[in-house]
UniProtKB/TrEMBL annotation:
Topology versus the membrane: Multi-pass membrane protein
Protein's recorded name: Cadmium, cobalt and zinc/H(+)-K(+) antiporter
Gene Ontology CC annotations of this record: plasma membrane
Keyword Transport included in the entry's annotation: yes
Amino acid sequence: MTSHAPALRREHSHVFDDGNPLAERNTRWAVMLTAGMMAIEIAGGWLFNSMALLADGWHMSSHALALGLSVLAYAAARRLAKDRRFSLGTWKIEVLAGYTSAVLLVLVAALMLFQSAERLLNPSPIHYNQAIAIGLVGLGVNLLCAWLLRDGGHHHHHGHEHSHDHHHDLNLRSAYLHVIADAATSLLAIVALFGGKLWGANWLDPLMGIVGAVMVAAWAYSLMRDSGKILLDAEMDAPVADDIRQALAESGHALNLTDLHLGRIGKGKYHCVIALSSADRTLTADRVRQLLAVHHELVHVTVEINRPPLAQGVVLFRQNDLA
């Protein structure tokens, strides 16, 4: 028997983030440079007994880990972009990589703190000349990585957007800030080693190791906070939420906003679910989307309109307009 059921309309694309090929390529280079320098600094720290140098190596390892996870996330997000299981796109794979990196960084910071405190209580001789040479090379690698990631392969967008809600690559921006933190840690290690060599202040070396541990922990907390907020859809304090309320309030239609859900699904891009109650028959889902069209960060909008009962005892007529 031939079925005459109407064919379902083809679903629209759920690829909301186009990726960042330039950022991915530059990040690969940064990973290779950083991983090589990380191995040299950690080995040099152990061989020449410099806790500051060792701490800088561990700090650089955290940077290599963060960038390595970012590269893998770029590849996974690109490969799975058209997988229908991801109904809101694959951008959060990159965010999940950042969160995972932050959790591991907390462990790295704890290890650095423990080793530095132990060295502070039980000092031992340091081979300053060799350690300083490695520290200077490490600083150079950090500055080179910062140059590679200086613009992050950013794609600049124009139009309606909030100055603080930019469209830059979240992972790469975090990586760039981390490179700057790495450079600062390398500089601290070099200062500590020169202080020990010139003035005999051996305590500066483990002290700078502790400072480096605090910097790693602070960066890890910042990344965990920002990525966790996105993963948990804790976005109702974003400016675009107030923009949605304002646009509906100034629409000229008699309506009540009964529910609003907001989540980020790309760099500076959001999806929202809006539930309204209105007796105004001219207010449709398409009209609501038209009202919100000026806010280009809203790329996936679902609207539900509930009609109140016409009279007492009349069954509620409900119209669902779904995107």
